[in-house]
TrEMBL record:
Residues 383-426, 505-542 form the PAS domain. It comes from the Bacteria. Pfam families: HATPase_c, HisKA, PAS_8, PAS_9. Keywords: ATP-binding, Kinase, Membrane, Nucleotide-binding, Phosphoprotein, Transferase, Transmembrane, Transmembrane helix, Two-component regulatory system. PROSITE patterns: HIS_KIN, PAS. The keyword Membrane applies. The chain crosses the membrane at residues 21-48, 328-352. The keyword ATP-binding applies. Its EC number is 2.7.13.3. Residues 639-850 form the Histidine kinase domain. This is histidine kinase. One of its GO terms (molecular function) is phosphorelay sensor kinase activity. It catalyses: ATP + protein L-histidine = ADP + protein N-phospho-L-histidine.
């Protein structure tokens, strides 16, 4: 154990001692060492034989370990060459030169040979030297190679040596006798074969022999040995390419008796080397088992000189190394030392074993890292292949360009879109196909893209045939490879054309809807929010109705309408419109509504309604009904009034006769006068019925309406002043003469003003307004008051004969009916607008007010 540990400790670099001992032995090695020391202490000769045999086996095991390390070193060196090759492949100029040389271009072949010659000269002129102790100068590589050539010519110098890596023994090949005569003690050496058999014929390059005290080299701890001094041979070789080569032959060097030991127990020969640009030739140790000329087993250990491309090889006979074990005293000393060191070794191995786990973990990590790197490389190739297929099969165009705007890559979709081939596009720049932005604007956009990272915009590109296409561009910036821009493009020409057509059709449809006087709106049936309205809704109700409640905008309500038709149209199975009529409480207009369920653009089922204003139709219908009623009533009252008129005249005559014969102051006279008054009132009613039922024979005249209105106000002046009512008369400047029946038109005004005086009688601020104006189509007279107002139910019966809301005895109910009949004779209409508590407005509209219309 001590011998092998010392051997490995002195002949291996420090960073490999733990791996060589622990990684391949572990606890088994510790148990074997302890068992070995116990057996040797009991039986010395058995221990000697067993130690001898075990030492050989262990040396072979160590040789296997270091051989594997050497294979790993060569593998890393080969990988370094691969990396160098890859680095060369990154040189675009060199790659193009090699490709041209392969095509047979003479100039490219000459350029390539010139480049290779320059590389060889540069390598030979490196500052790689070693120091010669005898001449006290540095030897350049060229001189070393010349010396190698001289050694190669030494054919008589034949030695016999064997390298036993897997074969037991081989025959010797070279031997220089003068070297053996130079040294008194037998020496052995290791000959390095040459791989390049075409130039050297498989010969050996040579060797260098120096004398050295192997005892000081291998066994610095065993100072009490009495055997003859051990001798070793130092070989100084260089490693050029895959094969180590001999550098130079050094003459015998005088070594001081006790030279200072360098790191690892090796004597410092003061040979300086330099290793420049060769990281694959790091310090590595090799241990070889050889056979010398006399058939003796020997040990050879090689080690890379630090910071140089040189390797030193140390050899010693194995029997000389193990000669000390033949002596019992030395054996007992070794056993004693091993016993004392057994506990320390066991503890050390226990500690080293824990470190061995870390070594194994690092080894597994390195292996996993290489496997992962290979997997990543494979995955990267697969992704690149996938991305290539994806881009080439995409319907959208793709760019890859640099910051100067030059195309680096395009896909087939963009080539088909623009009309250029891929090779033609790779020769162009973005400014060559951009149809909207100038080159300065495009450069500014690239600068903004570098700052923002990505951008999305629309532009236009010029095709090869000169046509212009609209494209939508999505660009992203990557700082890799000096800055590149990845761009995806989509042809928007057809979509732009479709958008224009849709915009025109949408504008036409909107213009059509907005041009209708009907109310058109779309509302959500659940939330009652308006989604769409036409211009009529905005003009009549609210200029900004979208998003507001339909019942609040259209009807002025705070809750949904009681007669809402959502249930009818959404629960119905048929797809027909639901048509119905209603009066809007908000503006008192009548509408015919057509409701239908439609599907909106977002998939929602919404309420669609078209509401046509039928207020005029309703009014005409009421007028028609009124005319029919009045016609029937007129026929009836004409006959009844004629039959009642004669009896009433007879009653009056009899009452007057009685009054004439009665004396003055008789009690019956007052009663008869009261009866006469009531009878005459009945005759007035009969006369009103006759007036209502029979057309008047009064002819139309051109009359100034202002005189008729003024005459009416003067007739009612006493009552107006008595009630404290303020009259406000407004006459437009364009009012001229109207074609009227003055007396009958005055009767209409008296009825309207009398009703207004009665309506404002309970108000504190009593006001009545009259407004006259005319247009080219009609003339209007409006009578407004701020009185109590009329209910909606009573407004439907205002023109019915004998209908009145006044107390009994204050009205006959024929005033408005007669007024309506008179206005109808004038070819006009009588309209009432009233709200309870705010007042009433009566509008007289005369259509045939000009003389030329008759």
């Amino acid at each position: 154990m001590t011998f092998l540990q010392t051997l490995i400790t002195r002949m291996t670099p420090r960073r490999f001692r733990f791996n060589a001992i622990i990684h391949y032995s572990g606890y088994q090695f510790a148990l074997l060492a302890i068992s070995l020391t116990v057996l040797i202490s009991l039986v010395s000769w058995v221990g000697y034989r067993w130690l001898y045999a075990k030492t050989l086996v262990q040396v072979e095991e160590v040789l296997n370990v270091i051989s594997r390390i050497h294979v790993d070193q060569l593998t890393r060196w080969r990988n370094a060459h691969f990396q160098y090759a890859n680095a060369v492949s990154q040189n675009p100029l060199l790659i193009r030169t090699i490709q041209a040389a392969r095509r047979g271009e003479a100039q490219a072949e000459a350029d390539l040979q010139q480049w290779l010659a320059g590389q060889r000269v540069a390598y030979q002129q490196r500052d790689t030297v070693f120091f010669d102790q005898q001449t006290q100068r540095c030897i350049q590589p060229a001189s070393a190679m010349a010396t190698c050539a001289e050694l190669r010519a030494m054919q008589p110098l034949v030695w016999q040596a064997v390298i036993e890596q897997r074969q037991p023994q081989l025959a010797p090949v070279f031997y220089p006798p003068q070297l053996d005569n130079r040294h008194a003690a037998p020496t052995i050496t290791l000959l390095i074969p040459v791989v390049d058999t075409q130039q050297t014929g498989g010969e050996l390059l040579g060797l260098v022999v120096v004398r050295y005290d192997l005892r000081q080299n291998l066994y610095p701890l065993l100072q009490n040995w009495t055997l003859p001094r051990l001798h070793s041979v130092m070989l100084l070789v260089t490693q050029d390419g895959d094969t180590p080569r001999l550098a130079n032959e050094l003459p015998a060097i005088e070594i001081p008796p006790n030279p200072p030991l360098a790191k690892g127990g090796r004597g410092d020969l003061q040979i300086g080397m330099s290793l420049i640009g060769r990281p694959e030739l790091g310090a590595t140790m090799f241990m070889l088992r050889v056979t010398d000329l006399w058939g003796r087993k020997s040990v050879a250990v090689t080690q890379q000189l630090p910071e140089s491309d040189w390797r030193i090889i140390t050899l010693a006979p194995l029997d000389v190394l193990l000669a000390q074990t033949h002596h019992i005293g030395l054996m007992l000393l070794v056993v004693s030392l091993s016993i004392m060191l057994a506990a320390g070794v066991f503890i050390s191995l226990y500690i080293w074993r824990r470190r061995g786990r870390e070594y194994l973990r690092r080894y597994q990590y390195e292996r996993q890292r290489r496997e992962l790197a290979e997997a990543v490389r494979t995955r990267d190739e697969q992704l690149q292949h996938f991305y290539a297929i994806l881009l080439n099969t995409s319907l959208d165009g793709f760019w890859l360009c640099d910051l100067n705007g030059r195309f680096l890559e395009v896909n087939a979709a963009y080539c088909a879109m623009i009309g250029y081939s891929r090779s033609e596009l790779l020769q162009l720049r973005i400014a060559d196909i951009e149809a909207v932005e100038s080159e300065a604007e495009h450069a500014a956009r690239l600068i903004r893209l570098q700052q923002m990272g990505n951008d999305r915009f629309e532009s236009q590109h010029r095709c090869r045939d000169g046509s212009i296409i609209a494209v939508e561009i999505s660009a992203s910036y990557s700082p890799a490879n000096g800055g590149q821009v990845y761009v995806f493009l989509r042809d928007m020409t057809q979509r732009k054309q479709m958008d224009q057509v849709l915009a025109i059709e949408r504008a036409q449809l909107r213009s059509l809807f907005d041009g209708l006087d009907d109310i058109i709106y779309v509302a959500d049936p659940h939330s009652y929010h308006l989604v769409y309205v036409n211009e009529t809704v905005r003009r009549l109700f609210n200029p900004q109705p979208i998003g507001q409640l339909c019942y609040a905008v259209l009807y002025g309500r705070v809750e949904p309408c009681l007669n809402c038709t959502n249930a009818q149209i959404f629960n119905s199975d048929n797809d027909q419109s639901y048509v119905w009529e209603r009066q809007n409480e908000f503006n008192q207009r009548w509408y015919r509504c057509a409701d239908k369920v439609i599907t909106w653009s977002d998939g929602r089922r919404l309420r669609f309604e078209i509401a046509a204003d039928i207020t005029a139709q309703k009014l005409h219908e009421q007028q028609r009904i009124q005319l029919e009623k009045l016609s029937a009533l007129g026929q009836l009252t004409a006959g009844v009034a004629h039959e009642l008129n004669n009896p009433l005249m007879g009653i009056i005559n009899e009452i007057q006769f009685c009054l004439d014969v009665l004396p003055n102051g008789d009690e019956c006279a007052d009663s008869l006068r009261a009866a006469e008054h009531q009878t005459r009132r009945c005759m007035d009613i009969v006369q009103s019925l006759l007036t209502f039922s029979r057309p008047s024979a009064v002819t139309f005249q051109l009359v100034d309406p202002r005189e008729v209105v003024g005459q009416t106000i003067r007739l009612l002046d006493y009552r107006l002043r008595k009630e404290g009512i303020k009259i406000n008369l407004v006459v437009a400047d364009d009012v001229t003469t109207w074609r009227l029946q003055p007396a009958r038109f005055e009767q209409v005004l008296i009825n309207l003003l009398a009703n207004a005086i009665d309506a404002v009688s309970t108000c504190t601020d009593k006001q009545i307004a009259l407004h006259l104006h005319q247009t080219t189509t009609h003339a209007q007279l409006t009578v407004s008051d701020n009185g109590c107002g009329i209910t909606a139910a009573d407004q439907l019966r205002l023109c019915e004969p004998f209908f009145t809301t006044k107390p009994t005895g204050q009205g006959t109910g024929l005033g408005l009916a007669t007024s309506w009949s008179i206005i109808a004779e004038h070819g006009g209409t009588l309209e009432f607008r009233s709200q309870v508590g705010t007042g009433t407005t009566v509008t007289i509209t005369l259509i045939n007010w000009q003389p030329t219309t008759f």
